[in-house]
Specification:
Layout lengths: L2 H11 L2 H25 L6 H5 L1 E2 L2 H6 L3 H4 L7 H21 L2 H25 L11 E2 L3 H14 L4 E4 L3 E4 H15 L5 H21 L7 H14 L16 H25 L6 H11 L1
Antiparallel strand pairs: 1-2, 3-4
Helix pairs in contact: 2-6, 6-8, 7-8, 7-10, 7-11, 8-9, 8-10, 9-10
C-alpha cells in the first residue's frame, strides 16, 4: 500500500477529529506547494485571496464561500502548527464529554461566529475604517477557541498539563485566553483577536443552551448528514426472482405438503432415531435447518 493509499485509508477510518486535522493540513500543503509554482513562474499568487474572508462587505458579496473556507485556511507554518496542536489536544478532551457530530458542529459554528465578529467590528468601529478594504481573515483559531471554551464551560475543573507551567484547570486557561484576546484588539492582529472572541462566544452559547437540553449543533449535523447522503447515495438492493410464479392456492398446497413431510420425518426420529432416516430425509432436515 502506497503512502497516498495509507493516508486515504486513515482518513476514511479515522475519527472526526482526525479528518478535521487532515483537511486543515491538506489545504495548507496545497496552498504552499501551489505558491512555489507561482513563485517560480514569477506570477502573483491570488488563491489565498479567494479563500480568505474579506472584511469589506462588498468583496464578501462576490465571495460568500469565504465565510466557510477561511476557517480551514492557513499560510504560515507556526499558525497552523499551534492551531492543529490545540485542535488535537482540546478536541480529544471535548470528545470525552460530547460526541463527534457536536465537535464538527462547534468547529463550524465557532468559525462562523468568529467571521461574523470580524466583519461586524471592521464595518462598525471607526478604528478600522481605513483598513477594512485591505483586511482579511484566515485560520482555524476561532473554531478551535470555540472548542476550548466549550470544554472550559462544561468541565471547568478538568486539568491539563502545559509545558513549562504544569497542571492547570480549564477555567483558568479560558479566563487568561479571553483576557489576552480583549487586550489584543488594540494590536496589529485586531481581526484575529476579534474572531477569537466570536469563537469563544459560540463555545459559551453552545454549553449554556446544551444545559437547557438544546443542542445548537443539531442543525449543522443534519445538513452534513444530508450532504453525505447526496455524495454517497445508498445502494439499492436488487431482488431477483427465479422460477415460475404460482398462485396463492398452489403455494399453500405445496407448503402444506412440505410441512406434512417434515412432521413425518420428525415422528420417525422420535420412534426409531436419527440413524433410521434415509439419505433423502436427512437432506430434507438439513435444508429445513438452514
Amino acid at each position: 500500500m502506497s503512502i497516498i493509499d495509507e493516508i486515504k485509508e486513515s482518513f476514511k477510518k479515522g475519527s472526526v477529529l482526525t479528518r478535521l486535522i487532515y483537511i486543515n493540513l491538506g489545504v495548507f500543503l496545497f496552498i504552499r506547494i501551489l505558491n512555489v509554482f507561482f513563485f517560480l513562474l514569477n506570477q502573483d499568487f491570488s488563491l489565498v485571496n479567494w479563500l480568505a474572508l474579506p472584511a469589506d462587505i462588498n468583496q464578501l458579496a462576490h465571495k460568500p464561500w469565504t465565510l466557510i473556507t477561511y476557517m480551514f485556511l492557513h499560510f504560515d507554518f507556526l499558525h497552523i502548527l499551534f492551531n492543529i496542536l490545540w485542535l488535537y489536544w482540546l478536541g480529544k478532551i471535548f470528545l470525552i464529554y460530547f460526541n463527534s457530530k457536536q465537535l464538527v458542529g462547534i468547529y463550524l459554528l465557532g468559525g462562523l461566529a468568529g467571521g461574523i465578529f470580524f466583519l461586524a467590528a471592521y464595518n462598525l468601529f471607526p478604528a478600522f475604517t481605513e483598513m477594512v478594504v485591505f483586511s482579511r481573515l484566515l485560520g482555524a483559531s476561532a473554531s478551535v477557541i470555540a472548542i476550548v471554551i466549550a470544554v472550559a464551560m462544561w468541565a471547568p475543573n478538568h486539568t491539563i498539563n502545559l509545558l513549562f507551567i504544569g497542571p492547570i484547570r480549564m477555567k483558568y486557561i479560558a479566563l487568561v485566553s479571553l483576557a489576552m484576546y480583549v487586550i489584543g484588539i488594540a494590536s496589529s492582529n485586531a481581526g484575529g483577536n476579534l474572531a477569537h472572541l466570536g469563537g469563544a462566544f459560540m463555545g459559551m452559547l453552545f454549553v449554556l443552551q446544551y444545559r437547557k437540553n438544546k443542542d445548537l449543533t443539531k442543525g449543522v449535523s443534519s445538513i452534513l448528514s444530508k450532504g453525505e447522503k447526496l455524495i454517497k447515495p445508498q445502494q439499492k438492493i436488487k431482488v431477483t426472482y427465479k422460477g415460475k410464479a404460482v398462485d396463492d392456492v398452489e403455494y399453500n398446497r405445496q407448503r402444506n405438503l412440505k410441512q406434512e413431510e417434515i412432521n413425518r420425518v420428525l415422528e420417525k426420529i422420535s420412534k426409531s432415531g436419527y440413524d433410521s432416516l434415509t439419505k433423502e430425509e436427512k437432506e430434507l432436515l438439513f435444508k429445513m435447518g438452514k
